[in-house]
Amino acid sequence: MEEYKENIQDKGDNVKLSSKPEEDDKSCNKVCSNIGEPVPQVSSTRGEFSDPVYKEIALANGHINRMNKDELRSKLAECKLDTRGVKDVMKKRLKNYYKKQKLSLMQSVTEGGPTDAYYDFICVVDFEATCEQDNPLDFTHEIIEFPMVLFNTHTLDIEDSFQEYVRPEVNTQLSEFCIKLTGITQKMVDEADTFPDVLKRVVLWLQEKELGTKYKYAILTDGSWDMSKFMNTQCRLSRLRYPQFAKKWINIKKFYGNFYKVPRTQTKLSSMLEKLGLQYEGRPHSGLDDSRNIARIALRMLQDGCQLRINERMHEGQLRTVPSSAPVEGAPPPHNPRSRV
């Protein structure tokens, strides 16, 4: 439903997490020595960015910018990195890998730097909702599929998933357009539970994973609409308070656009996959399959050195941006929301 969400949003609205540093090996050292000089001894009295290592990184970036596509692929292969993606993506991947190498060496001669793995797990959510081909602006979208895909930020593996269909209570009959788009049939939703019961099982699933208690985690979505529109509307229809654990999330579209320097028009799910040299796996507009593919994008971004952080939240029923200067925090322990009075 991702490209469909883009269309309806345009109508009605505006608006360690990097992979662990790889072990140094001979081929990697060879590549890095071709780009920059060895890291000098670090003086603890210097400013944060005054060390010569940052000049080396800048010089390396200039060298990488002058590489053609074949040279980039060759260097990435020597460093045992993924060679897929468009030229700008490959540049970003090589720059971040070299930067992490240099900084890890610099930290090894000081007190050891802080790790970037703030969240232990990230949980991808991508709802499917009732829809019509030409939705009026006041059309009520009800969640009809609640999927979650959980991946480990340390191992960079998808560890588990959750999926349940949801029976709508306002527009109980699915439109032919909705059935064709999502692959969700009338029989599937007729046999499903309503949202409050499904949400209870979502909370139980998250609790069983010890998220928010033993492990730090965050919700991740492909855009703002899943939480600011679909979850918000559904909780109102179901007379539930908005769940605390879902009030803050990572909007991967914003991070993708900023990290790879691409415009919003190139942050649709299909475009993001294509630019990373990946192909969609599964059925488009299946909530679970969309979530898995969004997770694949997030994992590739972590491998490329992106630091994913919560960047959006709900406040008094309104969507707000979380500034990058805000303290880094994860989602709270999941609990069932109270009923609205």
From TrEMBL:
Residues 1-27, 318-341 are annotated as: Disordered. Transmembrane segments: none annotated. The keyword ATP-binding does not apply. It catalyses: Exonucleolytic cleavage in the 3'- to 5'-direction to yield nucleoside 5'-phosphates. PANTHER family: 3'-5' EXONUCLEASE ERI1-RELATED, 3'-5' EXORIBONUCLEASE 1-RELATED. Residues 330-341 have a biased composition (Pro residues). Residues 64-98 form the SAP domain. It is an enzyme of class 3 (hydrolase). InterPro entries: 3-5_Exoribonuclease, ERI-1_3'hExo-like, Ribonucl_H, RNaseH-like_sf, RNaseH_sf, SAP_dom, SAP_dom_sf. This is 3'-5' exoribonuclease 1. The lineage of its organism: Eukaryota, Metazoa, Chordata, Craniata, Vertebrata. Keywords: Cytoplasm, Exonuclease, Hydrolase, Magnesium, Metal-binding, Nuclease, Nucleus, Phosphoprotein, RNA-binding, RNA-mediated gene silencing, rRNA processing. It comes from Oncorhynchus kisutch (Coho salmon). Residues 121-307 form the Exonuclease domain. Signal peptide: none annotated. It is found in: Cytoplasm; Nucleus, Nucleolus. Its cofactor is Mg(2+). GO terms for molecular function: exoribonuclease II activity; metal ion binding; RNA binding. Pfam families: RNase_T (PF00929), SAP (PF02037).
